[in-house]
Amino acid sequence: MADTPGLLDAIRSRFAHVDACPFTGPRIFFENAGGALTLNSVVDTSARFAAIPDNQGRDNPASRALMDVIAKARADTATLFNAPEGQIFVGESGTELLFRLAAAACLGTPQGVVLSSTVEHPASRSAAARWAGEAGKRHVLIPHDDATGRVTAQDYAAHVTPDTRVATILHTSPVTGMGNDVAAIAAAIRAVAPACFILVDGIQHACHGRIDVASYDIDGYVISPYKVFSRHGYGVAWVSDRLTALPHDTLVGGPTTGWELGTRDTGSYATMSDVVAYFDWLGGQVSDAADPRARIEAAGAAIHAQEADLAQAMIHGTGNLPGLAEMPGVTIIGGAENPAREGLVSFWVDGRPAPEIVAGLNDHGIRVHTRKADHYSGNILTPLGQEHCVRVSFCHYNSRAEVAAFLSAMQRLIAA
């Protein structure tokens, strides 16, 4: 993106609060894993639909217009996911949806094993543990590799058994920043347990683009839109037809294929169309593709390249500024050279508590986050012997100039 004059500025102009916090003023936003920046179009759409009093499913023009908005958003999201089959629906949050999908898969299958990995965020790991217990199934946790911060298809292959009924996969870790090969892991599972229901937590991966459900051979994929340029208050799930065929929460007398409970916010659906339109627009800036899905794929490739460049600068330096890998006492989780990294660098500094570094960076106008060895991140940090770490998470709208400001601030903090 840096090679296309004016493109980064055009990208940044589409996001709210891109370089200033509404509470504290100018700042650099490197806390995207906690929630990405919001598209200006999403802000406008949210306000517009919040004002509409009409409901879905009524015999009037306004209600029919709302239903058209929902249908379009489902189709748009299916294009973003590359999911020509199955169905798209929204829920309370990504975590809530993972629990609902896990409940259906665990309760609707025979006795056996529920397979997860220790790298997973508690959204999927806790859902699997909870519903494996309720279903009387054994919950098996596959150890991840502490050195690389990820889990592989070979790791799953070593633990999957013919009686594996449900498996969960984390697409990208919000602590290590490493992506896992969903398609390869799913293939390893199906080679031994072809009927297994496979559920994927795509919450951290989504903002980096390149979702391709059709290539994964899975049964559920969940995202949290506030982490992919939309807003809080809802989650989005894709489910396969075979998962929908299992018993799941529905209203008595209602359609058995439905997943939504109660009336959902039409505005949440509409903002997903805004997100897809943004990926489509970006793909048109970096390619000559005519097909919407092809433009989305081009956008994902450009996002990956931009974030890889930012990670390279952050780890190895830019201009005359040394990178994190060259700073004394700094240890980078997952290693400095890790091709699985997606828009995130977590590290610690020997002898310096992470909250102290985070506060110091905040004083320099740089927003990052402390990850603690708690129920969210203890699975990653405790095996490494760390109570906490600093997480720096960036997105394609961030710049090398922002990385340089971060490295300059880090130099001063370490020197102090």
From TrEMBL:
Q: Does the keyword Transferase apply?
A: yes
Pfam families to which the protein is assigned, alphabetical: Aminotran_5
| Alphabetic keyword roster | Aminotransferase, Pyridoxal phosphate, Transferase
Where do the Aminotransferase class V domain residues begin and end?
28-406
The organism of origin for this protein: Thalassococcus arenae
Transferase as UniProt keyword: yes
InterPro entries from the UniProt entry: Aminotrans_V_dom
This chain belongs to which protein, by name?
Answer: Aminotransferase class V-fold PLP-dependent enzyme
In terms of PANTHER family, this protein maps to: CYSTEINE DESULFURASE, CYSTEINE DESULFURASE 1, CHLOROPLASTIC
Q: Which GO terms describe its molecular function?
A: transaminase activity
